[in-house]
Amino acid sequence: MDDLGNWLARAAPGDGVSLDRLEEDVWSRVKAIQAQRATDRIRLAAVAMALVIGVANGGLGATFAQTTVSEMAIFSVAATSPLVRLEAG
């Protein structure tokens, strides 16, 4: 026997256990579970959308960002490196 069968067998008449609202309670639990699943799907879609937007903005933004060489770059640490001077040729 399953759990419902055991519960119904234990609920003898006159025990004070009422089965009047059993179906309503079951359907309210089913609706609550369905609502929770719908909420979870919406949250997942929102997180996925935020991830896609973040990756797109970060990747495309880094691609299109052009760094200009400042006139003060000769005073930077990289300018004093011998490797940088060899690359400049």
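[next item in queue]
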Amino acid sequence: MPQLSLSWLGLGQVAAFPWLLLLLVGASWLLARFLAWTYAFYDNCRRLQYFPQPPKQKWFWGHQVLIIATEEGLKNLTQMSATYPQGFRIWLGPIFPFLVLCHPDIIRSITNASAAIAPKDDLSIRFLKPWLGEGILLSGSGKWSRHRRMLTPAFHFNILKPYIKIFNRSVNIMHDKWQHLASEGSSRLDMFEHISLMTLDSLQKCIFSFDSHCQERPSEYIATILELSALVEKRNQHILQHMDFLYYLSHDGRRFHRACRLVHDFTDAVIQEQRRTLPTQGIDDFLKDKTLDFIDVLLLSKDEDGKVLSDEDVRAEADTFMFAGHDTTASGLSWVLYNLARHPEYQEHCRQEDRDPKEIEWYDLAQLPFLTMCVKESLRLHPPVPYTSRHCIWDIVLPDGRVIPKDAHSLICIINIIGIHHNPTVLPFPSTPDPLKERSPLAFIPFSVGPRNCIRQAFAMAKMKVVLALTLLRFRFLLDHTEPRRKPELIMRAEGGLWLRVEPLNAGLQ
């Protein structure tokens, strides 16, 4: 038998045995890993067989065509939730299973689990990490718990109250634009675009105490925020761009990197300036003379050991709030106005709750119960966050005895928020708007649920109520085909693919 020659490595035949041994050990290790993965995969498949599965359209791609991140994909999820009201399993490719949970009784087992047992999965948000860093949206359980405790004071009612004046000013600017456009005659514009600029304007003032006048003139920072949001959404829809090394070689990847750098530079400059101006003593006197913005609260926050947040952590939380705060509220507001246009009787009821069109005060928010119900019903019908995901570190037993197997790497549990909201076994006639419906708390999940629920809900609801109360007192919203055209009016492209007519009321012309 010929000897293996390693002369090309400068080694003699005597060295062949150790190299063969090393090769054998490496091959054995790879084989053992493959067999362990194969057994775990088989065991998971066996335990997942108790969850129903829709038919696959293509063997290799699995159910990917049914769950694409588009309006069609959301409709598919809603329809499958009606067919499988408890939940179902789907496959992304041939080897990546997902459990889609569609009923409050089923998701309760996960939502009641701690963040250490059922941590948030980064399935749909990992592409945000270069932009948002290790903020409260993306951080792991240990860092998340610390930041959650330190951020809670930032959303106390005493901090939120002064923001109401900021909301009033920002929405007044938007309304002035609408009045001007209406006075010039019928104009067509995108409602979501205008509302997004308004929410970004108010957020920039609340977070940074900075006024970019982005509603009146272009702002590079605001344009970059919108560009980053669009790039992340585009990347979600193209599976080949999910691989980082390919994405950052592409044109979109380079644009994303440049945009991240610009946003980080802006936030870093604000942090450095405000850290420099914060007094080292006499904090109480400083607080009496200043409305705290979000950056101030973060810079003043300390944990149980007296440690403060680093500049990088402050930047991550500020950028996270800027991203999450504008997109969800802008979407929610657009859908509320669309739904109120479809139901003029609800719109008029909301309009009658508050008769002062000049300014909304903090105490006024409690005097708008029907408007609040309409907001919640619209968020149920069209949740800004349609689903959230978890992966289970431990086995989780469901009420019916089925088990979600632990698998920290491949099995992902999707809490199908839009499916729960439209589940006919949870709520009769779920697609029919009715603000007076009574429902279980877990049958209404506007943003997130469980230990990692949305800390900014009070802020978002306060802003939405201020914007809607002022808007309904100054404008009437109708579906474009409901009545003969009258001037002045705006024609605004709304959610749902329809156009709304926006007519100024007398109160708005004073």
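[queue empty]
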